[in-house]
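step 3/5: co-fold with ISJ
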Amino acid sequence: MKKMNPLEEYREQIDEVDEQLVALIAKRFEVAAKIGEYKKAHQLPIFNPAREEEVLRKVARWNTNDFYTEQIQQVYQTLMDEAKKIQE
Ligand SMILES: C=C(O[C@@H]1C=C(C(=O)O)C=C[C@H]1O)C(=O)O
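step 4/5: write tokens
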């Protein structure tokens, strides 16, 4: 196989991570959709600010090396915003 330059190698690493992320993000949205159905059936509000704060806290705690915590929390806020749209 032809030797890849560092840029190509890094991009291959990103592709591998992205493949896993896509599967996990899709799984998260599937569960969020189920939660949405439950909320509809029980007349519960879609937005739960206390739960969102809890998610952001947990995400920071799970990021044990503490790199990029703010960026990860921003990505999570976007995931939660999209989850709420799915639940509408
Ligand atoms: C998924 C839920 O609905 C909304 C989306 C959340 C999420 O994506 O984690 C969290 C709270 C809610 O605002 C939930 O209530 O758990």
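step 5/5: annotate
The chain has one domain: 6-87.
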